[in-house]
């Protein structure tokens, strides 16, 4: 029976999110010949406004070029539909004659689908296809988009550490991550021993104090003559408030529809740079804000990430007849396996780093943590240890 | 006749600076068999302190692995020798029995060599081998290290522009560059038309006002629904002072031995982010500081840059018998050519972007400017134009 598939993208883009669109579109053509395949522009906003790209007849060549383009090529949104908005989305899906709505996104996207699913009849199935560079979805071993962003971060810290061997000082790279420190911790994936940077990692899972940071940096400089630090922009003080929040003037606070404060590594970075200069006068100290660079960078897209994201789109379509649900990428018996789980098993939940990934002090990876990143990333490039 | 070559690296690292060391070392072995090849640690500091890595017997495999390692693997320095320091360096060279001192660096490095050359006898030749991601050396068409850094910047802006097509807003990426805007302008190398970002570039060559920036951004947002900006951290106000200087509290000003103020994109970035939020309330606005990321990033090393940097090391050794001088990489009759020029032709001078690279408003590349970057960089990756 021919069907109508509506596909959309929500939340922050990744380097491989279009692979999932392509995987879903190609599977729909193969499994359900004669189906119509509509890509909604800007997520649920496009569905509510009948704003579609017709992917039905797009050549496979063009679809694969689209797949290899980083960042959400259908457009994205952070809209969180209320009851009235939900009605407009459901009406839109009915006008399109949708049999399945495949929405690619993180836990906010899964939450939106759970709400839509509860309000709709049984004639439409709602399928959540995971993606997020934050790697923070429960039920998933790792999420599409994470590997590529992690590869950028690992490359960046390997390079910066070589830079700070050449001319010594203190470097802090601030990496995206609101609640989960996976992306920041990926900075340490290619360390070989204590002398390699990053020498310290600070993640949202561990309460942060500036006093401790300064003490850690001083000790590292004493020992290695330099200190390279990877820090999540979402590091939190003991009261569970983002450190950045206390540094941003209140009248500039900006929240999205999901209530998330828009963090900016810049504010955090500047405050840290001033603190280091005052605490360690005369020491070369630099803070860079990676910001959006890791999430869609063309130069470091992981081939495995590409393939997995494509496979998830295919799996979403292949399992769309059985009912609504979320595609989960799990790791069972030494291999990556896909399965469907209920939408609300993923919605509005956040996976943080397991406690055994971090040492008791919270600023280094354990062997268990390292092993996880080694499994996901390619081996450290064959760089000669420099002579300094 | 066997000789002693002393090789050192000065100033900021690049992704390919070790290629020049390897090229020089291999040429010395081939052309002057039995020669001793010493790599000084941390530039002139290592020479003054007899701190050397003996490269004479290093296997070609290890030397090429070292060549492919980004950032100054011998260590670097920003020391600017005064008379007493010069004497210590010259004494060090004499102790080592040096017949030639090959110093890889920018115009400050060339200046140091000119001073040493004037103070030394004729028994040592001083050869400057160029490198700088700033691309600001006179007598050179482009400098080793620039292509790789430019490739990072072009990739970053292509990716970020796709990101801001997906979710609209204003993005400013702040790129290193104190006096010359080449690296910032490389952001526009892969633009195809007006709708592609970066929509605006701001470089130190053109007087900057925040009022003009805000007007330019508003116009671009009105026209394209988004605005992606590439800005040099060294942008200057009409009085030729770096904008960042007025934003950094005076007591935190930090200058190196060459009198250069240590700029930090972070201060500039934060000020701009606040300004945009106040001027365009409700608009998604993000500022990222690229900082050190472009200069040694492993994921975007240019193959041509590798080869040219290696060739420059080789040329430096091959021409070391004729006297002191600076290797210049020129573009003659459609091809890159190396020649020796006097040290003080390069020392303490800065090449900025030619006036015909920029439109009269100063915030776009002309066809002439674009052609230059097209000649240096690989073609734009085959990315599908997204559907938004």
UniProtKB/TrEMBL annotation, chains A, B:
Pathway: Carbohydrate degradation; glycolysis; D-glyceraldehyde 3-phosphate and glycerone phosphate from D-glucose: step 3/4. It is an enzyme of class 2 (transferase). It holds the Pfam family PFK. Diphosphate binds at residue 12. Its main location: cytoplasm. It catalyses: beta-D-fructose 6-phosphate + diphosphate = beta-D-fructose 1,6-bisphosphate + phosphate + H(+). Its EC number is 2.7.1.90. One of its GO terms (cellular component) is cytoplasm. One of its GO terms (molecular function) is 6-phosphofructokinase activity. Its cofactor is Mg(2+). It is found in: Cytoplasm. The active site is at residue 134. It comes from the Bacteria. InterPro entries: ATP_PFK, PFKA, Phosphofructokinase_dom, PKF_sf, PPi-PFK. Non-allosteric. Catalyzes the phosphorylation of D-fructose 6-phosphate, the first committing step of glycolysis. Uses inorganic phosphate (PPi) as phosphoryl donor instead of ATP like common ATP-dependent phosphofructokinases (ATP-PFKs), which renders the reaction reversible, and can thus function both in glycolysis and gluconeogenesis. Consistently, PPi-PFK can replace the enzymes of both the forward (ATP-PFK) and reverse (fructose-bisphosphatase (FBPase)) reactions. HAMAP family: Phosphofructokinase_II_B2. Belongs to the phosphofructokinase type A (PFKA) family. PPi-dependent PFK group II subfamily. Clade 'B2' sub-subfamily. This is Pyrophosphate--fructose 6-phosphate 1-phosphotransferase. It comes from Bauldia litoralis.
């Amino acid at each position: 029976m021919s069907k109508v598939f509506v596909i959309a993208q929500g939340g922050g883009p990744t380097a491989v999110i279009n692979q999932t669109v392509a995987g879903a579109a190609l599977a729909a053509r193969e499994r359900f010949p004669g189906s119509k395949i509509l890509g909604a522009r800007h997520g649920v906003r496009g569905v509510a406004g009948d704003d579609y790209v017709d992917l039905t007849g797009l050549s496979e060549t063009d679809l694969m070029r689209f797949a290899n383009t980083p960042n959400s090529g259908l457009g994205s949104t952070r809209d969180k539909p209320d009851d009235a908005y939900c009605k407009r989305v459901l009406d839109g899906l009915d006008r399109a004659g949708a049999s399945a709505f495949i929405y690619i996104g993180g836990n906010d996207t899964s939450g939106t689908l759970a709400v839509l699913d509860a309000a709709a009849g049984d004639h439409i199935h709602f399928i959540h296809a995971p993606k997020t560079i934050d790697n923070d979805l429960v039920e998933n071993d790792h999420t599409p988009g994470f590997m590529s962003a992690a590869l950028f971060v690992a490359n960046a810290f390997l390079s910066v550490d070589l830079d700070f061997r050449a001319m010594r000082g203190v470097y802090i790279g601030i990496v995206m991550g609101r609640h989960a420190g996976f992306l920041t911790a990926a900075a340490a994936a290619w360390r070989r021993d204590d002398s390699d940077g990053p020498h310290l990692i600070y993640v949202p899972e561990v309460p942060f104090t500036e006093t401790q940071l300064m003490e850690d940096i001083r000790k590292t400089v004493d020992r290695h003559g330099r200190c390279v630090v990877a820090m999540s922009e979402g590091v939190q003080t003991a009261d569970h408030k983002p450190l950045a929040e206390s540094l941003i003037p209140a009248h500039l606070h900006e929240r999205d529809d999901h209530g998330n404060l828009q963090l900016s590594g810049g504010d955090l970075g500047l405050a840290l740079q001033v603190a280091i200069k005052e605490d360690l006068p005369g020491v070369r100290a630099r803070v860079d804000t990676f910001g959006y660079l890791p999430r869609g960078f063309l130069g470091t897209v992981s081939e495995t990430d590409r393939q997995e994201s494509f496979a998830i789109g295919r799996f979403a379509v292949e399992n769309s007849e059985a009912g609504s649900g979320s595609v989960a990428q799990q790791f069972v018996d030494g291999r990556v396996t896909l399965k469907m789980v209920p939408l609300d098993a993923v919605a509005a939940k956040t996976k943080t780093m397991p406690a055994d990934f971090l040492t008791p002090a919270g600023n280094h990876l354990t062997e268990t943590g390292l092993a996880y990143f080694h499994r996901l990333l390619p081996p450290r490039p064959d760089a000669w240890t420099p002579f300094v």
